[in-house]
């Protein structure tokens, strides 16, 4: 144990916040000198920023990730507007398609002038539903276009990850989660339901339904019945329970009431031998509703859901109604996101890799990729070192874990081959039609994968996305170009903050292969138990300790964290921080880290970690995330992992009585 250093707060009191030497890679102006790191790492590193920065009116959450996403959007906007300003874009080229799509989406005057004409053919299709077969075919035909009661996706098979096969997923709710419908004793949920009813009634009135109030109640009542059969968020994390390969010939027995042949035909899926039903009881329950609820009620439901899904390309009254509910009521934002930024969101969804190719050419130099690859390899090496030192895992499981780690595939920056958008049709002045055609183009691309070998080169995110992911079915870690920027990665900064920020992000994604979900997949990406019973029991016990820790946190008054829902992310945060710290110490080559701005390298590492999770969240948005998000709120990500880290306690000399102190024997160490 190191000698207890001066409290960070005291050190900061002697430093001028105006002296912004950024060689540390830290935003020192964001620190709060009145808060000791030993009591609250998150607020010590971010308190001044939290107290002084006003959240933009169009945001429901705001911080490091959101600021970087805004920067990425601005950079993409500059690319898009440069293309739109040209008069010589070749006909049918990606440049022309991007320009036409963006111009149509941005032209609100034209959207308003066209009124409901663009959506009338769609609504007429709902009116033509005359029987249950028609209903099933319609639901199949709209896959990928809107939130449907039974959704389809094409996905690598859990047991044969080299082959793509269809699976189902429960859906159909207009509110964020089943809890909003079922936990009526919570006044906040009850208010959201009331606001939703007002929104549905507004949509019904705007489209001219004869009894808007009744239409809203019919839709809400049907959604409540759907919510009653939905699996909850924790059940949906069970990889074994959600894998249920079912012969197509048995679908009528497993989930009677839905005409499965018409449904799959409508979706374009022909000649299937099987698909996986992710939530069998929910699918059976929804199929029964499709068979028994009056067709007129389903048609009302589908009409209002269609209007909700497409409101952004409908006249102003629809757009305003949607924002009043989905923006203000559900998330607390008081202003809508700027139209240009909504347009970038839509373009990223429609032609994301085409934009990504242009983005990386301007904003991701080759040397960034090379340095990032070095960091990833260092982190993989540190995870291997940690693996060898585990005392709770036996040699047989450890050997298989080493094999899995050795099989990791790393993708950095951007894909090696780009998607082809030749078949996508974009028309001038047709915002709603362009959106529909882009969604149908994307779904057709998915359908074409069914039954085919998985393309190992494919990416699940665009290069301009500020995020990262681990894919257990490919055993790969993926880091898009846009996240490789400050505050996560600063090529000009000292390594300590970089290892604490992007290093811990890399470690987080590596660790997902060994969290409670990822650990169920082997080195080849197959769902297979490669553990001994004793080792799995030991791992589960450690996870239970982490669940208990996080369920003590209360992000919203009266609402504590769901430790089982967030377990996988909490394991990844904890383990990622551990291996990033080991990698940082290893990078020093046995030499002491320099002291910069009065802070040791170890202290800068943890402050860099904390600043990476800097964020403010409105309460209504926080409530929504608590029911739907598998990540803990940023404050508890920063503090919850650090409190278990021996290096944190050594760096800041915590002792009994400090709020962040945790006795060494009670610290949770997993990987």
From TrEMBL:
InterPro entries: MetalloPept_cat_dom_sf (IPR024079), Peptidase_M13 (IPR000718), Peptidase_M13_C (IPR018497), Peptidase_M13_dom_2 (IPR042089), Peptidase_M13_N (IPR008753). Residues 38-415 form the Peptidase M13 N-terminal domain. Its cofactor is Zn(2+). Keywords: Hydrolase, Metal-binding, Metalloprotease, Protease, Signal, Zinc. Residues 467-668 form the Peptidase M13 C-terminal domain. GO terms for molecular function: metal ion binding; metalloendopeptidase activity. Its EC number is 3.4.24.-. Coiled coil: none annotated. GO terms for cellular component: plasma membrane. The keyword Lipid biosynthesis does not apply. GO terms for biological process: protein processing. Residues 1-21 form the signal peptide. It is an enzyme of class 3 (hydrolase). Belongs to the peptidase M13 family. This is Putative endopeptidase. It comes from Inhella inkyongensis.
């Amino acid at each position: 144990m190191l000698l207890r250093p001066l409290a960070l707060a005291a050190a900061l009191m002697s430093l001028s916040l105006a002296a912004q030497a950024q060689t540390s890679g830290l935003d020192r102006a964001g620190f709060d000198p009145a808060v000791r790191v030993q009591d609250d790492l998150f607020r010590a590193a971010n308190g001044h920023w939290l107290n002084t920065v006003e959240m933009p009116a169009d945001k429901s959450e705001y911080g490091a990730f959101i600021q970087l996403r805004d920067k990425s959007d601005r950079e993409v906007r500059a690319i898009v507007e440069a293309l739109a300003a040209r008069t010589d874009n070749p006909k049918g080229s990606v440049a022309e398609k991007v320009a036409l799509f963006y111009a149509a989406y941005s032209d609100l005057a034209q959207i308003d002038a066209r009124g409901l004409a663009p959506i009338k053919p769609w609504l007429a299709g709902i009116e033509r539903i005359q029987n249950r077969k028609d209903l099933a075919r319609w639901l199949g035909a709209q896959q990928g276009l809107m939130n449907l009661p039974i959704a389809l996706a094409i996905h690598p098979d859990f047991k044969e990850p080299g082959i793509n096969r269809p699976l189902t997923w429960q859906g159909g709710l207009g509110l964020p989660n089943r809890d909003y419908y079922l936990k009526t004793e919570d006044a906040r949920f009850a208010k959201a339901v009331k606001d939703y009813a007002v929104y549905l009634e507004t949509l019904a009135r705007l489209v001219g339904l004869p009894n808007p109030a009744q239409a809203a109640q019919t839709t809400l009542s049907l959604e409540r019945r759907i919510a009653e059969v939905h699996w909850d968020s924790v059940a949906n994390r069970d990889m074994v329970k959600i894998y249920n390969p079912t012969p197509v010939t048995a679908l009528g027995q497993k989930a009677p009431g839905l005409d499965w042949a018409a449904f799959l035909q409508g979706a374009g899926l022909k000649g299937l031998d099987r698909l996986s039903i992710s939530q069998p009881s929910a699918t059976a329950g929804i199929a029964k509703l499709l068979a028994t609820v009056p067709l007129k009620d389903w048609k009302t439901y589908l009409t209002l859901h269609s209007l909700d899904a497409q409101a952004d390309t409908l006249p102003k009254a629809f757009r305003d109604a949607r924002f009043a509910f989905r923006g203000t009521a559900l998330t607390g934002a008081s202003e809508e996101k700027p139209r240009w930024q909504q347009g970038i969101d839509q373009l990223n969804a429609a032609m994301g890799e085409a934009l990504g190719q242009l983005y990386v050419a301007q904003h991701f130099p080759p040397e960034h990729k090379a340095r990032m690859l070095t960091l990833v390899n260092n982190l993989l090496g540190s995870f291997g070192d940690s693996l060898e030192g585990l005392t709770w895992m036996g040699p047989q499981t450890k050997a298989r874990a080493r094999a899995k780690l050795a099989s990791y595939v790393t993708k950095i920056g951007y894909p090696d081959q780009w998607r082809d958008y030749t078949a996508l049709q974009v028309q001038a002045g047709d915002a709603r039609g362009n959106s529909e055609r882009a969604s149908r183009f994307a779904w057709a691309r998915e359908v074409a994968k069914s039954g085919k070998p998985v393309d190992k080169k494919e990416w699940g995110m665009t290069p301009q996305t500020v995020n990262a992911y681990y894919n257990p079915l490919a055993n790969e870690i993926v880091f898009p170009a846009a996240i490789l920027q400050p505050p996560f990665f600063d090529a000009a900064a000292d390594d300590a903050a970089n290892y604490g920020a992007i290093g811990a992000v890399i470690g987080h994604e590596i660790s997902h292969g060994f969290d409670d979900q990822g650990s169920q997949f082997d080195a080849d990406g197959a769902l297979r138990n490669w553990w001994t019973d004793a080792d799995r029991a030991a791992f589960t016990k450690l996870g239970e300790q982490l669940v208990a820790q996080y369920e003590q946190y209360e992000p919203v008054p009266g609402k504590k964290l769901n430790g089982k829902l967030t377990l996988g992310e909490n394991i990844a945060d904890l383990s990622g921080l551990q291996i990033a710290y080991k990698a940082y110490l290893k990078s020093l080559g046995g030499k002491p880290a320099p002291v910069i701005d009065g802070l040791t390298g170890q202290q800068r590492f943890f402050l860099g970690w904390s600043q990476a999770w800097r964020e403010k969240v409105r309460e209504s948005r926080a409530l929504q995330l608590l029911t739907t998000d598998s990540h803990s709120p940023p404050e508890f990500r920063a503090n919850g992992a650090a409190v278990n880290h021996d290096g944190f306690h050594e760096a800041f000399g915590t002792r009994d009585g400090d709020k962040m102190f945790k006795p060494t024997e009670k610290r949770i160490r997993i990987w």
